[in-house]
């Protein structure tokens, strides 16, 4: 641990990220190595191509890569990279982080928000039928016909749509996943 | 095959019965050779002959019985019409009787007392029952005739249970927790076995165990067979406790996978005991390797058979009727093959796990149901037999070689080491995404039940070589009884007290299905980006599955179906059933909601549409119940929905049928487009009928119409911005566009099963109707309805597709029936699809 703390100095914004994301120093170092590995030309930031190369098989790859970039920006630097990944840190049951930000990135709410924004491409705060259809199409590919996709989407929206605006807003989204253990389903075990 | 196996079980019983019956019958029963021969398997098994031997002897006994029976009629001398043919029917008869006893016992157990059975698990009751039966047999014949025969157990009872468990194992959950399961099964069981063995030996050396004559090897052998958690017991107890799935899968998975460890240890020690402890070195090397062979071999056998099974079911389209048979046969063959090579037969659960996905996709819905229920039936009866026979076996003086020291030491060590095994969890938790907390660990250690496997293994011991066998048998019985009865009895309160998260029976909604799939993709992507080798790399496997396995093992027609679509269909069907179970009743729509739409109030907009049926404020429950039952009794609720294409036109008029009790809205049909019942009319005059049955057709009809009309709205997708709700406009479109839109979904779907495909479309719409299931009420009321309905049905001619005229009163039940049974040769015939399979 001591060695990782000292080498943390090489990581940009190391201490602050440690505080902000809740990652341990070892994880942060590991992620930094990974970042440098992805950053083939050592430019200090990643472009979407760098990330996409890792996700060629993933049907939602584009969306997830997109989530790493702030709107309008072409590149992502290490701190933002880590902040995005911090959404997927498992929540610890016991540790109370009093005094810090009230809502760490790995809270249930933030996790859901992250997922929600992957659906909500036009960022109007709602998953419209078209947006949902698009996701379904990406996930299911050629396995189903367009009619089937539409009926699934239709049903999903009807199910979740509480205010009947034919779209799923974040609250409705959260409500529809009320029973799902998001902490389990949206967490990745980061290696120490 | 199973039946034949059960022969084994009942042979002694048969022999007994025939023996006692023989004096009564005199010369007619002229097969004196058969009964003694049939008796053979019992002593043989009891003396610890390996299972195969006793099987063979049973076979020979059976073979001999046939000729004896065949010559039977000839040698009675005179010609008799009525003869006592006991020896001819003996074996199957006794089997059937035993099965009957077991099944009736189950009924008795469950109906004994509602309150009692919620507290006492079924397995305990069955063991108690077995004890009583055993006592009766012992008193009657002075000697215990029955016991749990290891051959019977391993060849027939265990595979049915394990096969069922494997086939319906939630594969994803199982593989997500595979690390933990394997750790517990391998490391935990090894630790348990060695520690128990050594500690018992130490206790012996210290003089705590006095009478037992055994050395280290014997104790190690005993430790090996007593330390394995038993799948049958775990299944029986945990199914009633309903702990959360993760906890269950870990304990149950462990109990399945530790079989390989137990088996290897058992065999190795047996060989040690045979060879004598002096010459152990040579066998020692063999030990480590054989575990791998036994476990990997068993798994491979399972997987090979899974591939064969998937491949065969790919081609069963023309022989649907025998589809389920393939499943049973191949799963069973996998088990037998593993036994044949003395691999870990229980590991052939992988056959079920692996094949499930492909088989379920390949076989028809009916076959799926058949497979499910047959497997559950067999497994349940096998479980019943096992527990009853455990009880019976215990009542046997010859087995009771009691040594208090041994018994108490074993109990203490078992509990202690089980608890310590679970202590390894902290190591595991370092690698788990979802750590197992203290409470989980307590339940896991407490759930380490021993059962029939241990008993069968100990009975199989050779008394010549293991001199302490009788002590071991007695101790095993005590341990099994203690864990199954005491722990089984107390685990429920414990789980409650610890507030262990329970499993919910809630089925996922379509949103959850979609989003969880998306989450999987997201997590895989995140792991890829972060460069982690995580759990979500099972996606790689999924890719392989998609590219190769599915192509090979799935039919072309189902290959393209996606799981999400399947899930969607299932949800729809579930909703449809719940709607139909209530007879499409929407009387109380205000407080209705669909099961799939948890925790939601009904949408007003939908309620508008669904509100139009007459509201009967008086005793809605009863009406609802009445209406639901015709559908249920006919078991064709879905047929009704799927077929009746013509009905939409009837919707407005059908309301008029309601005139019989009291007129509702005379103007209704013409005002269809603005839905007068919606609000303008206020609360419509309630149509209260003295006879509840008279309302039925009305509401069924209406429910049906709603579903059709709502079908309309979706099959012609509504414009999002449409000011009037689509369903409303759909209502006005009812007449013309229906047929076209109806065929739409069919055309789009693969040709394989049109009904199955178009059906969900409708279902989906039905769900809009916001119906609520009221399971209890509907069932209780069934008898009310069945009386008028059944007699009326046969003689009525099928109704014309046109709706009944406003003034025309029909017997409601008859009308309902006519909707359900296809009119012979009528115009509707061309429309009728085969009943949608549920």
From TrEMBL, chain A:
GO terms for cellular component: cytoplasm; nucleus; plasma membrane. The keyword Ubl conjugation does not apply. The keyword Transcription regulation does not apply. Keywords: Calcium, Cell membrane, Cytoplasm, Lipoprotein, Membrane, Metal-binding, Myristate, Nucleus, Phosphoprotein, Protein transport, Repeat, Transport. Residues 107-142, 148-183 form the EF-hand domain. It is found in: Cell membrane; Cytoplasm; Nucleus. Pfam families: EF-hand_7. SUPFAM superfamilies: EF-hand. GO terms for biological process: protein transport. GO terms for molecular function: calcium ion binding. Belongs to the calcineurin regulatory subunit family. CHP subfamily. This is Calcineurin-like EF-hand protein 2.
Automatic annotation (TrEMBL), chain B:
It is a multi-pass membrane protein. One of its GO terms (biological process) is sodium ion import across plasma membrane. GO terms for molecular function: potassium:proton antiporter activity; sodium:proton antiporter activity. InterPro entries: Cation/H_exchanger_CPA1, Cation/H_exchanger_TM, Na/H_exchanger_3/5, NaH_exchanger. Residues 1-15 form the signal peptide. The keyword Ion transport applies. Residues 101-497 form the Cation/H+ exchanger transmembrane domain. This is Sodium/hydrogen exchanger. It comes from Poecilia reticulata.
